User: Fold this.
Amino acid sequence: MATTGTKTFKNYIGGEWVDAASGETFESLSPATGEVIGAFPRSGKEDVDRAAKAAREAYEEWRLVPAPERGEILFRFAEILKREKAELTDLMTREMGKVKAEAGGDVQEAIDMTYYMAGEGRRLWGQTTPSELRDKFNMSVRVPIGVVGAITPWNFPIAIPSWKLAPALVCGNTVILKPAEDTPLLGERFVELLEEAGLPAGVVNIVHGFGEEAGDALARHPDVPVITFTGSRETGVAVTKAAADFLKHVHLELGGKNAIIVMDDADVDLAVEGIVWSAFGTSGQRCTAASRVIAHEAVYGELQKKLVERAEQLRLGPGWEDDTDVGPVINRAAIEKIHSYTQIGRDEGAHLLTGGEVATEGELEKGFYYRPTIFGDVDPQMRIAQEEIFGPTTALIKVGSFDEAIRAANGIRYGLSSSIYTRDVNKAFRAMRDLVTGITYINAGTIGAEVHLPFGGTKDTGNGHREAGQAALDVFTEWKSIYVDYSGKLQKAQIDNVKPGA
Assistant:
């Protein structure tokens, strides 16, 4: 494999570092400065074919490795991630743009997830149940499925691969990773460290490239029965259609338009802290970002004033500088999309309270920086309150009651994360029941998932599956029911179990 100094990298297939079949490459750029991070293989169908063959062959042996032993390899990987945390954090500030603290948190999430899934190597629970017949034993077990195609996004370039690969591997599957084209070097390092942990050749493969080329080939490949994808709703639909002809298991984690509700009895200062972190952390580039704030009219004015003051104090800059609060967004297309929504908000009649512009002064001109943006007096049906912007923009919505707040929060196509600030325990429990999201926070923002609970959402946020926790195992295993009859005679289950006179 080439070194970082040459800025030329390769795919990893069957334990070997190889170029794309076409010989073509693409570049990864730092969103903070525009500098070239490296050149990577622009892979296509032929490369995916080769990776699928390697993964399929490796599967036949890997599935027979005892699950505790698979877990031990993951444990070593977690230890290696700990050792390399500082290096990965620094790389993430440069290739993805996160500020240092957030980048370190991204890596720590991968460490936590890998430790957790390593433990599943000694669990992977099924069930035992009584039989309705004598001298018969019943149980269910989890079995691996085969080759998993993992298509991961750029906004959590170490954490999300761990969410997908750690459970897939401990369950006995092999993997082809197609990382986002905006963060290929982080994907590369992830696989290099897995290799160091002792994974056999072919168990994990990495194929770089673009979604419409390498990603599409992966979704359509007949020897890849599982596709796990995190990204936009539109791409998720395309992945589903591409996989449909082979009836693949498709796991989707898609968009969010998450709301923080601030009631009239809330601790407003605490709410402001949570909103700033949830709306502008990672420059708003999180599927759990708080892009809506639904405030009771009794606290709306105070909340708006304090929120604007805090947003205007945030410092933009490169993620590796210690005093940076908000880093760049990922690329020029993101800047253009975010800014287009600023104009949409104006045209819809919302009041631009702060931000709403590309930051270009001084060194910021070299990168992709957008000022934290807040709209006030937003109607819940405006596009800026309905559509995922994926940038540092949030919309303030005024309501007159708890019921109106719940209706506004639920009145969107997505259902990932939600939050309510209130001192009323009754309102808190009603919100837990009535908010139609996969995640609900009480007196905290909309971000900050823990690895031992299911992560995912309702409605157009996904297709019903979950990542993290025990729930992740259902994506990467099939259930097998096993019946052991030791009666020494033919028993016919329900037929033999009919009671006299029934």
User: Anything to note?
Assistant: The domain at 258-442 is CATH 3.40.309.10 (Aldehyde Dehydrogenase; Chain A, domain 2). The first strand starts at residue 11 and ends at 13. The mean pLDDT is 96.
